[in-house]
Design brief:
The complex is a heterodimer of chains A (374) and B (232). With 374 residues, chain A is an alpha/beta fold. Helix content of chain A is 70%, strand content 8%. Chain B folds into two domains: 1-59 and 136-232, P-loop containing nucleotide triphosphate hydrolases (Rossmann fold, 3-Layer(aba) Sandwich); 68-134, no CATH class. Chain B starts with 12 loop residues before the first strand and ends with a helix. Classes of the chains: A alpha/beta (374), B alpha/beta (232).
Chain lengths: 374, 232
């Protein structure tokens, strides 16, 4: 089947006659025919399009013809379809020409690496302001909570303690037990080279009680409960529940954030304490399994190594780490804007920031302890 | 938005109309104090600017999704404002909650969670919660959005009942024309090109007589016959 677009010229007038099947199956041939005919129409002022000889036309053929007419019009030619010869084809071509007239919205250009850095830098003051604003609102909420305790959702506290504490106990316990095992193996392999296996229990106590216990527990809680809290509040935000709270006169910080932070501050030290005990067990298992040290000797050495400084020095960090997790998770949740994708993005950010925050706070505590000689 | 000035007469229902991006929802958020306008003043019953107001809110709000708290039963959702702002507890609170649920036709669903009821029922429960502190003014954000035609008409009938029988002033943001003709005594039409109100008055009169092209086109989406059949 031959496909062509014939141009019959008479001075500055022309008649354009598409012939054949202008459909999607023959689109390449139609495109070639359309491209070939345009030079033949140079200098024409008036062009009539005769659709009589079209065997068939569908959307694809109509688009290609519509684009040709668009280009001719843009060159200053006056095109006109002879509609009475094939009204259906004329309607179809007109449909695509009308669509063409709608201004398309400007597509955002992909950003270069430098532009992305600039955008992040420009966004930084807003982020800092938002963080300070949220911190300020949390600080301002405390005296108001004291003045009006019913402005806090205390009823959810047992449920939160269950969620953040009891439900997290298996995973924090397992993590601490394994860290105890790791320190035990490490101590045996390194201290054993100097015949100092007897100091392994003290190494486990000092390393875990002071540093790794609070840190590992807080990181696990940040990953587990921090993500849960952030996504819960973010979902409430996108489903207008936070707006509903505010419209009823509730302060979301007092109603939601305070109860969650209180639950974390109560529960994380307990999880840390349980984790410490299990880490000792892990150290014992590793040492007894790989050396001649008896369990009784390990326990006695451990009891000698545990001091108030080591025990309290670790546990005292936990409430601060817990508070950081709560504030970061809730703050990110409340800052959510948009739909389901925003919930995921904010949750990820919350977890990353919470883990980073926990490490930074832990490092600051260690620095303070070193300076104080504790 | 730059040119927006209007009053709402007590006991009437005002519809805020406009196309997408005209500022309807933003205007609503200003009125209920969730956002603060850069300039201008909003006064509700002489209580001052909504975003500065602290205390029992002088109005109730139905959000587009109903915005019920998904972890609470309908009864607990409704009791929440009472817990915060009143000393009412126990049996009295339960009676008040039940009465409001009965009023919106959900008396049998007090112990259901929001996830266990339909979209229309969630919105009715949202209205009941918005009315718990007996406000004289209710704001509705797209109440018919996402509902099937029957549920939408039932919700419109409920809004009419609240306005007529309880004398509550209602401000409703919508672009559902059948709803507008059924519930609204007056309306304002926002246009993003004009950055404000381009027409105000009785919606039927605007539909029939407005010569402003945007307003004419807006109302022309609904056939007069359909509107008359559903009109009050």
């Amino acid at each position: 089947m031959s496909i062509a677009v014939r141009a019959e010229r008479e001075g500055d007038r022309a008649r354009l006659v598409p012939e054949g099947a202008f459909d999607v199956a023959h689109a390449p041939a139609v495109a070639r025919a359309v491209a070939h005919v345009q030079p033949d129409l140079e200098g024409c002022r008036s062009i009539d399009v005769d659709l009589t000889h079209l065997d068939r036309i569908d959307g694809a053929g109509a688009v290609l013809l519509a684009r040709l007419l668009d280009r001719l019009d843009a060159n200053g030619d006056r095109t006109r379809m002879v509609e009475d010869r094939n009204p259906e084809a004329a309607r179809l071509i007109t449909l695509y020409r009308q669509k063409r007239e709608d201004p398309s919205p400007a597509r955002p250009q992909p950003m270069s690496a430098l532009t992305k850095i600039g955008v992040v830098a420009a966004d930084l003051p807003t982020r800092i302001t938002d963080t300070l604003d949220f911190t300020g609102r949390c600080a301002a909420a405390l005296p108001r909570v004291v003045a009006s305790p019913r402005s806090v959702d205390w009823r959810s506290l047992p449920w939160l303690v269950q969620q953040i504490g009891a439900d997290a106990l298996p995973v924090t316990s397992a993590a601490n037990l394994l860290v105890g095992v790791i320190i035990g193996f490490l101590g045996v392999s390194q201290l054993g080279r100097f015949g100092a296996v007897v100091y392994v229990p003290e190494l486990v106590v000092v390393a875990h009680f002071r540093e790794l216990g609070p840190l590992v527990t807080a990181i696990v809680v940040a990953g587990r409960s921090g993500a849960g809290l952030a996504s819960e509040i973010a979902t409430m935000k996108v489903s207008e529940e936070i707006d509903a709270l505010r419209s009823m006169g509730f302060d979301p910080v007092r109603w939601l954030v305070v109860s969650r932070c209180v639950a974390l501050v109560l529960v994380v030290p307990l999880l840390t304490w349980v984790g410490d005990a299990l880490a000792l067990l892990g150290g014992l298992m590793a040492t007894v399994a790989t050396t001649d040290m008896t369990p009784r000797a390990y326990v006695l050495a451990t009891m000698d190594a545990i001091t108030v400084n080591h025990f309290v020095g670790g546990l005292i960090k936990s409430p601060f780490l817990a508070l950081a997790i709560g504030l970061i998770a809730c703050g990110q949740g409340l800052a959510t804007q948009g739909g389901a994708a925003a919930v995921g993005a904010r949750t990820t950010t919350a977890v990353v920031l919470a883990i980073f925050g926990v490490i930074v706070i832990n490092a600051l505590f260690t620095l303070v302890y070193v300076v104080m000689g504790v | 938005m730059e040119h927006v000035t209007f009053d709402v007469e007590r006991g009437t229902t005002l519809a805020i109309l406009g196309g997408s991006g005209s500022g309807k929802s933003t205007l609503l958020r200003y009125m209920i104090g969730l956002e603060q306008p850069m300039a201008g003043r909003i006064d509700i019953d002489g209580v001052g600017e909504p975003h500065r107001y602290e205390g029992v809110p002088p109005f109730g709000v139905l959000f587009q999704s109903g915005a019920l708290f998904s972890s609470m039963t309908l009864a607990d959702n409704l009791a929440l404002p009472l817990t915060m702002w009143t000393p009412i507890r126990g049996a009295t609170a339960r009676d008040l909650v039940q009465a409001k649920l009965d009023l919106v036709g959900l008396g049998a669903f007090a112990e259901h969670l929001p996830g266990e009821i339909s979209g229309g029922m969630k919105k009715r429960a949202g209205i009941a919660r918005a009315m718990m502190l007996e406000p004289s003014l209710l704001f509705f954000d797209e109440p018919s959005a996402g509902l099937d035609p029957i549920s939408a008409v039932e919700l419109d009938e409920l809004i009419v009942t609240l306005s007529r029988d309880l004398g509550i002033t209602i401000v409703i943001v919508t672009h559902e024309l059948p709803s507008i003709f059924m519930v609204a005594n007056s309306c304002i039409v926002l246009d993003k090109t004009a950055k404000g109100i381009v027409a105000r008055g009785d919606p039927r009169a605007l539909r029939d007589t407005s010569e402003i092209p945007f307003v004419h086109n807006f109302f022309a989406r609904s056939s007069p016959e359909a509107s008359v059949n559903q009109g009050r």
